Amino acid sequence: MKVLCVAEKPSIAKEVSKILSGGSFSVRNSNNKYIKYFDFKYNFPQLGLCDVTMTAVLGHVTNFDFGPQFGWNSCPPGRLFAAPISTMVSHQDVYKNLSIEGRNASKLMIWTDCDREGEYIGFEILETARKNNSRLTLENTWRAQFSHLEKNHILQASRNPIQLDINSVRAVECRMEVDLRCGISFTRFLTDLYKGQSLIGEKEVISYGTCQFPTLGFVVDRYIRVKNFVPEPFWYIIVDIKKNDQKVGFLWVKGHFFDRAYVTLLYQKALKSPNGKIVSLTKRPTSNWRPLPLTTVDLQKDASRIFKMSAKRALDAAEKLYNKGFVSYPRTETDRFPAAMNLKDVIERQTSSNKWGSYAKELLELKFRSPRSGSHDDKAHPPIHPVKYAELTQLNGDEKTIYEYIVRRFLACCSDDAKGEQTTATLKWGDELFTANGLMVLARNYLDIYIYNKWESSKQLPPLEQGEEVNITNAKMKDGKTSPPLHMTESELIALMDANGIGTDATIAEHIEKIHSRNYVTKIKQGNVEYILPTDLGMGLIAGFDEMDFVDNISLSKPFLRKNLEIGLQEIVEGRKTRQQVASEMVELYKNAFVLCNQNSGNLVQKYLEIRNRNVQ
DNA sequence: GCAAGGTC
């Protein structure tokens, strides 16, 4: 009996083959240079000893598209909201692999990632393999359930196959349909509109996408908030005391007020007391927590914040490290390690480093702690962690930086929190309360390896006693003003996209790149920090859309529509709605907006012209 | 020339 196993990517095919075959398999080349066939024998409990061929695809094999009669200049863009959609093969060589290998298989087993897209890719594999083999049906196709590559977990998955989840398949079809109809129609409409008035060059495109525009919207929104910011004055009180020749500054518990007269009143009342009194003195243990296991989004935020490396560059470097076998799969949303994973093995492999080897040894011998568990699990990949030890000299610039970061992050996860002691003195002066803090770091623990976090002892408070009367050496009423928000950094943008469900771990960086390459945003450096600012074009596009009076108050530049789509997709997965229901609801919303934009295309462009001209004057 | 989602 021949069983064909297919994974989402070559690395999984190889690892699973190693585990199922116990290391004895033979390798054949395929039509694609990245993809191999692994042949071996395996005993499936339901089938007995089988001839197994394990191979992979490279993500999606097919894609949705409109027919040739719906090309750019062959139909009005509005037609695309209802035009028929067909499935096209996007990777011919991969497609060919599956049709050939599927021909004489009695059983197909899907080993794609266990997430929504993986379920659909599994479905594409089935549809392809069954073209030449009618024995392969949805009902008799096995789907392996696994979330990492630990040996027993994979063996368990091989023995307990389930079926492809057709609801997830329909949900992905729905996403593809909505993104295709909205993206292509608006892109053609906007490009033709801007080009018609010679506002962009012959080769330029004004693209619209359900993710691109909310991303741009975040940047524009921040920019406007900074520009429109009006500082507000406020007033507050500070107090100093002196003990053992040491000056201690106290902060007002009430913070500050925007009413000068009120603060003056409280200040003058307090001034009647020449002395203050220490009303409480507390010492409490405090911790500085070690980081959570590493996700893609965290990696990208930190790369941008700590190393000034764009999200795209960071992910590129992590991918190269992954392809060389140095780190685990870099696209993951999971921030908890699987219980069965042998973390000490991972640490052991780092002991040969002259930079962090001794720390790793110390962890193994004495100080190892189980990592914290976050609340995210994509059910497909474990958190990013080092796999093989790499000499830093083997790696190039970005790879070196990212590898070292991933190793330090992992070792930090397996360390103890930093421990300290915080002393808080509360001073009463008249009727007003003030506090002063002193921090003493007692055990640095994870901070010794995770050099990117700072937590230092502050100046210690002098010996004070509860109930002690202290002389106020200085008391002032001060003023300040509220400061504007800062412009958007890439790391904040990533966090916003993540929190609002715009894009995925694998695509967030691409969306940011896209709005940059389309000239909707620009990056400027101020001091050591890089900010993302909208261009006139980006401002104009968002302002134009925001000007429109869409039905139901929807917005084409805010994240809510995309979030609604996500909610709809989840309802399809749970069987509460059909693909058709959700797709037609969403497409209807975008189509109404499209019609309005068409009718008011003059206003849409006018907004851009106003912004451009305002900046010229 | 167009989307977003996989992966190389």
TrEMBL record:
* Superkingdom of origin organism: Eukaryota
Its Gene Ontology biological processes?
Answer: DNA damage tolerance; DNA topological change; double-strand break repair via homologous recombination; mitotic sister chromatid cohesion; nuclear DNA replication; reciprocal meiotic recombination; regulation of DNA recombination; telomere maintenance via recombination
Q: Which residues form the Topo IA-type catalytic domain?
A: 165-594
Q: Identify the EC number(s).
A: 5.6.2.1
Q: Does the keyword Ligase apply?
A: no
InterPro entries the UniProt entry points to: Topo_IA, Topo_IA_2, Topo_IA_cen, Topo_IA_cen_sub1, Topo_IA_cen_sub2, Topo_IA_cen_sub3, Topo_IA_core_domain, Topo_IA_DNA-bd_dom
A single Gene Ontology CC term: nucleus
Q: Which reaction does it catalyse?
A: ATP-independent breakage of single-stranded DNA, followed by passage and rejoining
One MF annotation (Gene Ontology) recorded for this entry: RNA topoisomerase activity
* All residue ranges annotated as the Toprim domain in the record: 2-144
The answer to whether the entry has keyword Isomerase is yes
Q: Which family does it belong to?
A: Belongs to the type IA topoisomerase family.
Q: What does this protein do?
A: Introduces a single-strand break via transesterification at a target site in duplex DNA. Releases the supercoiling and torsional tension of DNA introduced during the DNA replication and transcription by transiently cleaving and rejoining one strand of the DNA duplex. The scissile phosphodiester is attacked by the catalytic tyrosine of the enzyme, resulting in the formation of a DNA-(5'-phosphotyrosyl)-enzyme intermediate and the expulsion of a 3'-OH DNA strand.
Please give the name of this protein: DNA topoisomerase
List the top taxonomic levels of the source: Eukaryota, Fungi, Dikarya, Ascomycota, Saccharomycotina
